[in-house]
Structure formats: structure tokens, C-alpha cells
Design a protein that fits this description.
Radius of gyration: 22 Å
Strand content: 15-25%
Number of helices: 9
Strand order of the largest sheet: 1-4-8-2
Distance between the termini: 29 Å
Structural class: alpha+beta
CATH topology of the largest domain: YacF-like
CATH architecture of the largest domain: Orthogonal Bundle
Length: 256
């Protein structure tokens, strides 16, 4: 079976925010799983980034609005005979569950984590150029000497307020990514352009190319059209060049 790499391009600020948070959640999960001293530090950095990002706006309200919007759109699909009703009911049930979890959160998400003294000290020291050294923050050095199990429990507790956001955003993106079957396309001499159907609220472009391809896509998108240039860069020290050959790829214009 051919392996593919997928490149995504969000078409609005909402999806862009969800993708950024998804990446932070994935990084956190990776470092928590491996649990070395270095991984613990990286997991804490992820939590601090999530905290900083979610403090900029009412992310809980944004996620709730999107879950409600998806729920409304999916309910309309129930009238179509070709729809798998069992699967649709399962998705709607999960969306309702995610909405209930978010609605049960009181106040700002992550406020308890924000008040953790050690995390506040790490955040303050992180603004200084260069890595935090032992002499900068002895409290962190001491914390890293604690048993691995203890450190893991602390980290999981600090992340816990963001767990509902993680699950809700993954739900939203899963529904969006599976909202269309996609088409096989060809970029002639490495360039492809297509108009966007204004009657559809396309939110995300997904381009899949074989893992052994020597090219990668650079996607530019506006309100009415998008273009893809497939680039090649054998030497990272040099500027990339557009591929001269035709490039076959799979395109998904995700909208719901």
C-alpha cells in the first residue's frame, strides 16, 4: 500500500487556531509518553504554550459554536437516504457529549494551571534568551529529581483542564477532514489552480502526495480561488525551485 504525506491549509482563522492547538496537544502527548527529564521539560513547554494561546480569546466559546454548527449541519444530512444513519447518530452523540463537557467548565479554561507557582516561574524565565539552567531555577532542578511517576502525575494534573479542549478540537477536525471524498488531480509543471465554490464554506484544503515524492506543496488561498506550487529542494541551504514535471496528487476541499 502506498504511503502518503498530507499537507493542510486552513482557509479561516478558526480552523487555523484549531490546527495549532491540535499540534500542541500531539506534542504534549508524545513527550508525556516518553517521560525522560527532557521530555518532561518539553511537555511543560507545551502546556505553557497551550495556556498562552488559549488565554488570548474565549477558545471555549469558539469551540462550542463550531460544535453546535457541525451538529446542525449533520442533523440535516439525516434526511438523505444514502447516509449511514448509525454512523451519523454516533457522531451526533459524540458531539453532544463534547458540548456537555465544555458547558460544564466554569470560568476561564486552565486558570488552576496558570496559578501553579513552578509553571509561572518557568514561563518567566523562558523569556530570557538561552535555555533555563539549573542556577536559573533550582526549584525546577529539584522537581526533576522526583520519581518519574510523581512527575507524570503532576504534568497530567496541569494538563487536565485542557483535556476537554483536546477531545473537542479533535472531534471537530475529524468531522471536517472526513466531510468529502476528494479527487485525483495533476499539477502541470508543478502548478495547480482552482476556483472555490462560494456556495460551499470550504474551511480546509488537504493535499496528499506519495511519501517517495521529491516535491512538496506550497498552498496559497483567497476567498475565490487557491493555487498550489509543488516545490523541490534537494539542498536546504539553497532556495527551493518549482518542480518542472507534472505532479499527481489527491485533493480534498473540506466543508461542512
Amino acid at each position: 500500500m502506498t504511503e502518503y504525506y498530507v499537507y493542510e491549509q486552513p482557509l479561516n482563522e478558526k480552523v487555523r487556531s484549531f490546527l495549532r492547538l491540535e499540534k500542541l496537544f500531539q506534542q504534549y502527548a508524545f513527550h508525556l509518553k516518553h517521560a525522560s527529564d527532557w521530555n518532561n521539560r518539553a511537555a511543560i513547554d507545551c502546556i505553557l504554550e497551550i495556556l498562552a494561546y488559549t488565554s488570548r480569546s474565549d477558545i471555549k466559546l469558539e469551540i462550542l459554536k463550531e460544535l453546535e454548527r457541525q451538529h446542525t449541519r449533520l442533523e440535516r444530512l439525516a434526511k438523505r437516504p444514502q447516509i449511514d444513519q448509525a454512523q451519523l447518530k454516533s457522531v451526533l452523540k459524540n458531539i453532544n457529549k463534547r458540548m456537555g463537557e465544555l458547558q460544564a467548565i466554569n470560568g476561564q479554561v486552565g486558570q488552576a494551571t496558570k496559578n501553579v507557582e513552578l509553571l509561572s516561574a518557568i514561563a518567566q524565565k523562558s523569556s530570557v534568551p538561552g535555555s533555563i539552567c539549573d542556577f536559573d531555577l533550582p526549584a525546577l532542578k529539584h522537581w526533576l529529581t522526583l520519581p518519574r511517576e510523581t512527575r507524570t502525575k503532576h504534568i497530567e494534573k496541569w494538563f487536565q483542564p485542557f483535556g476537554h479542549l483536546d477531545r473537542s478540537i479533535q472531534m471537530i477536525l475529524d468531522v471536517l477532514r472526513h466531510s468529502t471524498e476528494g479527487t485525483n488531480e495533476t499539477a502541470e509543471h508543478g502548478f495547480f489552480q482552482q476556483s472555490l465554490d462560494t456556495s460551499q464554506a470550504v474551511q480546509l484544503l488537504r493535499i496528499s502526495i506519495p511519501a517517495d515524492s521529491q516535491c512538496y506543496p506550497e498552498i496559497s488561498a483567497g476567498k475565490h480561488r487557491f493555487s498550489v506550487r509543488f516545490m523541490k529542494n534537494e539542498d536546504p541551504a539553497q532556495r527551493p525551485e518549482q518542480c518542472k514535471e507534472d505532479v499527481r496528487f489527491h485533493l480534498k476541499m473540506c466543508a461542512i
